[in-house]
Amino acid sequence: MIRVGIIGAGLVGAKRADSLSDARLVAVQDKDHSRAKVLAEKHRATVEKDWRDLIARDDIEVVVVSTSHDMLSECSQAALSAGKHVLVEKPGGRNIEEIQRQINASEKFKKILRVGYNHRFHPALQKAKEIVEGHSLGDLMFVRARYGHGGRLGYEKEWRADPSVSGGGELLDQGVHLIDLAQWMMGPLNPRWGTTHTFFWPMKVEDYGFVALESEDHQRCAWLHASWVEWKNIFHFEIFCQRGKLEISGLGGSYGVEELRVFKMKPEMGPPETEVFSFPGSDLSWKLEWESFVRSLQGSPQQIGTTGLEARKNMEIVRWVYERNGQIKS
User: Fold this and answer.
1) How far, in Å, CA of 325 to CA of 290, rounded?
2) 62, 23, 58: which is closest to 43 by C-alpha?
3) CA atoms of 163 and 154, how far apart (whole Å)
4) How confident is the model at residue 209 (pLDDT cuts 50, 70, 90)?
5) What pLDDT shows up at residue 329?
6) Cβ–Cβ < 8 Å for 38, 135
7) Which of 3, 215, 268, 285 could lock 220 by a disulfide, CB 3.0 to 4.6 Å apart?
8) How far apart are the C-alpha atoms of 32 and 11, rounded to whole Å?
9) Distance between CA atoms of 239 and 22, rounded to whole angstroms?
10) Number of other residues whose CB lies within 10 A of the CB of residue 285
11) What are the DSSP calls for 130-192, one per residue?
């Protein structure tokens, strides 16, 4: 039974705790002590006032870091240096340097580091990946994707609106999920064009972003759009192949039922054959990501969780776009 400590008891921390299997939650820490207490009581764990005390415990093997962006790297690096394996929430930090420090600690102390890009584990996306790798629709050509929501009253006052805490806006929040999925499907991609803008929310970070990516050999590309001014929550990920198309929509909840539509080209062309896979019910991605993380701890080499190096590559693309738009000085 793996013994786990969680730093950050908010919405995501609670999802992580509820998704544990073959594991026991030992301790919880959050700057909001009452929130930590609620999560700890639910899982019969103890509460630590300081995250450093949680990391120092001998009865914890794995630390899950689910804080705001400004604390992700510091907590993760300290946990790795203390000999703990780490699952840290995406994007893993506010910048490339913060992610690299975790990679260095993971390598130095020989501990597993994974970054929580849970969207790889949505069943519709996993099924799509299986179809792409089976080549039944031919070679993958390009990806087109949209992801966004409309915020809520007071959104401009939340921590995501403060660049010193978040490191960036919507491109680093939801957009980075699209970047990760595109590279997971197609392999390493390089940025060719990107723009960000703050259209609606009175904040110092962007609420909107477009990114164009391309493979080094110019054979694959991706067109990605993330927005906090979507108004109606949306997730739509399309994969275009030589003999058909895969279309993933919805993530459950307010994003709608998760579905995969497979459009297979007929020899005579015209309207394609269509097959629909639906995945109603609760979001399984958190549980599946945790199970993959456990298999990594057990030495299995074929896991699909996002590594520190992959998270760094995602951040390099975000950095390129921010520099291009003057948000970060190169």
Assistant:
1) 36
2) 23
3) 16
4) very high
5) 59
6) no
7) 215
8) 13
9) 35
10) 23
11) HHHHHTTT-SEEEEEEEEE----TTGGGSGGG-HHHHSSSHIIIIIHHHHHHHHHHH---EEE
- CA-to-CA distance for 65 and 308, rounded, in angstroms? 14
Helix or strand (DSSP H, E) at 195: strand 190-197
Residues 213/222, Cβ–Cβ less than 8 Å: yes
What tokens were used for 54?
């949680």
Edge-first strand listing for the sheet containing 190-197: 190-197, 208-214, 221-227, 140-148, 234-241, 244-249, 258-264, 273-279
Share of the chain above pLDDT 70, in %: 99
Question: Any idea how long the chain is?
Answer: 330
What six digits make up the tokens of 323?
């520099």
How large is the average pLDDT for residues 70-87?
98
Pull the structure tokens for residue 319. 């950095």
Q: Are 198 and 206 in contact (CB under 8 A)?
A: yes
